[in-house]
Specification:
The chain is mostly helical and 237 residues long. It has helices at residues 8-24, 28-41, 50-68, 78-94, 109-130, 134-145, 147-166, 171-177, 179-196, 199-206, 209-216, 218-226. α1 (8-24) crosses α2 and α8 (171-177) crosses α9. It is globular. The chain crosses the membrane at residues 6-22, 27-46, 52-72, 79-99, 111-130, 142-165, 177-194.
Length: 237
């Protein structure tokens, strides 16, 4: 299950199962604690990303809880964005390499958690700032609507630009040295693919056609409208 870059699919799927079961049993806080603890004592790679799913469960649960308070729609102050970005950069400097795919969070998982929290705040603030720039807003909104396609094919898209670096010398060495150039070119290729490929092709390649059928069905729409809003306490119970 270590297929790059689709390892996150079983991880997210299993994490959703964890969340649903723990919430149904009203022991979600226990699962959150176990998720944080697992980052310190569990490493390796279990089948179907059972370990990774447990480690990322706390962030998903806290995100759901924050959404219930309306925090996700609030503006992040510019100063908070700057401070969070600085703290994230400092923490990332001292943090070892992290391999989330292998459930490895470096020699200091606590430092990773610190960096993750402030990184989330920093990214949220920067996203709100970028939202004011219309061209960038359109680009990132497009990527957001095509998340599965981007994550599923960004490495494959990289092979299209691989020959360019081959002309300049050792392509692997060049890509590692100038990773930011490679990343920009790679994202440009992904963007062009999304813009140029027909809608049916994108839907099939993303594997989202079943979700679209369900989401567009009248029965689903009626059922969704009948659902009541969850209270904040329900996210922790």
């Amino acid at each position: 299950m270590n297929i790059i870059p689709l390892w996150f699919v079983p991880a997210v799927f299993v994490m959703g199962i964890y969340y649903a079961i723990l919430r149904k049993l009203r022991i979600l806080p226990v699962g959150i604690v176990l998720g944080f603890v697992s980052m310190f004592f569990l490493s390796g790679s279990l089948p179907f990303k059972l370990d990774v799913a447990l480690a990322v469960l706390p962030y998903f649960a806290m995100g759901k809880f924050a959404k219930s308070f309306g925090i996700l729609t609030r503006r992040v102050p510019v100063m908070m964005t700057i401070v969070s970005s600085a703290l994230y950069a400092i923490a990332a400097t001292f943090c070892d390499e992290v391999y989330l795919m292998e459930d490895y969070f470096g020699s200091s998982p606590s430092l990773y958690i610190f960096a993750a929290v402030f990184g989330i705040i920093a990214i949220s603030g920067m996203a709100q700032l970028l939202e004011r720039i219309e061209p960038l807003k359109r680009i990132f909104s497009l990527f957001g609507r095509r998340t599965l396609f981007v994550l599923g094919y960004h490495i494959a898209a990289g092979f299209l630009v691989y020959p360019i670096f081959d002309f300049l010398g050792d392509p692997i060495e060049i890509m590692e040295r100038f990773w930011y150039v490679y990343w920009l070119i790679n994202m440009a290729v992904v963007y062009l693919l999304i813009r140029l490929l027909p809608e049916p092709a994108l839907t099939i390649l993303s594997g989202s056609f079943l979700a679209k059928r369900k989401g567009n069905s009248p029965e689903y729409a009626r059922g969704k409208s009948r659902k009541g809003k969850s209270t904040r306490s329900e996210y922790w119970s």
